[in-house]
Design a protein that fits this description.
NAD(P)-bd_dom_sf; 12 helices; 14 strands; globular; six-stranded parallel β-sheet; NADP; Asp_semi-ald_DH_pep-lack; alpha/beta; Aspartate-semialdehyde dehydrogenase
Length: 359
């Protein structure tokens, strides 16, 4: 496979930094362009990021002296340097929509970590193990945009990357309703304990917009492509409550689910342990060998023990048991900036490369 030239738009933010660490030594992707806001543009990355690097590993050596371009003003320049870009900018939604479409119309495919296009009917929102087939909508999006190569593909909200993968292998059993309470790490807000001291010894019971995303986005993920658009699923009904907790990385969810008929718990566990998706079948570089891991211990999963399982790309599940109001309840966990954000976008790009959309 050829080496794809890749850019990161929003390279100075937390997710942008995570992209840089994941692209270092990637077997398919070579980092060739960095972009951020106008205030960072024109400087080498080491200078633009000075005092703001939040990863536990050093800045990749290849990025240190790379020039930072203006994400909005240098679209054509960046598009000429890359085969596609990852986008993780901090802007208003209408500005993000315009920016991502500008890159797509410059014939530069966009792998977006942003929410601005998640509701757009012809933009696939892909969890590669679940709805790889939604790439079928890309030709219709290209027709709308008037492009030959350019298109936008998005990853879902990080809060649902734990419980949606856990529910998915059970969908053919007739899941009717789901309640999910998510306990979300501070890195999901782009924070560390140093920059977010008010979270210490505290739980914040509201995260703006998260509950709506957690309830609505799964319906697009479980939808189907029809007449050039993704038609949303009608079931199951989902209700969510999202809390910010004093954890550095890793979103945990307490999940309750009901079914059309009684299901044995061991069958559910067997489905989780045996589930494989397209990334596992294709052997994509970032794909976990086992997507879902079930723990039988009562005190698992835990963020400090399980968030980095399979390089942070697997989902951990535990505490499956019957429930009196719903049929079952369980706890699940995923790494929010790896599986949930940058890592999920890299895996999505690998999938689209393997299926020929980025050639």
């Amino acid at each position: 496979m050829k080496k794809y030239k890749v850019g990161v738009i929003g390279a100075t933010g937390m997710v942008g930094q995570r992209f840089l660490t994941l692209l270092e030594n990637h077997p398919w992707f070579e980092l060739t362009a960095l972009a951020a806001s106008a205030r960072s543009a024109g400087r080498p990355y080491s200078e633009a990021i000075e005092g703001r690097w939040m990863m536990s590993t050093p800045i990749p050596a290849a990025a240190l002296q790379m020039p930072v371009y203006d994400a909005s003003a240098d679209v054509e320049k960046i598009a000429s340097m890359v085969d596609f870009v990852f986008c993780a900018v901090n802007m208003k939604k209408d500005e993000i929509r315009a920016l991502e479409e500008a890159y797509a119309k410059a014939e530069c495919p966009v792998m977006s970590n942003n929410s601005a296009h998640r509701a757009t009917a012809d933009v696939p929102m892909i969890i590669p193990e679940i709805n790889a087939c939604h790439d079928a909508v890309i030709p219709f999006q290209r027709k709308r945009l008037g492009t030959k190569r350019g298109f936008i593909s998005v990853k879902s909200n990080c809060s649902l990357q734990s419980y949606v993968p856990a529910i998915h292998p059970l969908m053919d059993l007739g899941v009717t309703k789901v309640l999910a309470c998510t306990y979300q790490a501070i890195s999901g807000a782009g924070k560390t304990f140093q920059t977010f001291p008010e979270i210490l010894d505290n739980v914040i019971p509201y995260i703006g917009g998260e509950e709506e995303k957690s309830e609505q986005e799964p319906m697009k993920i479980w939808g189907h492509v029809e007449n050039g658009e993704i038609v949303r699923a009608q079931t199951p009904s989902i209700t969510a409550q999202c809390l910010r907790v004093p954890v550095s990385d890793g979103h945990t969810a307490a999940v309750f689910a009901s079914f059309e008929k009684k299901i044995e718990l061991e069958e559910i566990i067997s489905r989780w342990e045996s589930y494989r998706g397209v990334p596992q079948e294709l052997g994509l570089p970032s794909a976990p060998k086992q997507f879902l891991h079930y723990f039988r211990e009562d005190n698992r999963p835990q963020a400090t023990l399980d968030r980095n399982l399979e390089h942070g790309m697997a989902v951990s599940i535990g505490r499956l048991r019957p429930d009196t109001q719903y049929d079952i309840k369980f706890v699940c966990l995923s790494h929010n900036t790896l599986r949930g954000a940058a890592g999920g976008a890299v895996l999505m790009a690998e999938l689209l490369c393997a299926r020929g959309w980025l050639d």
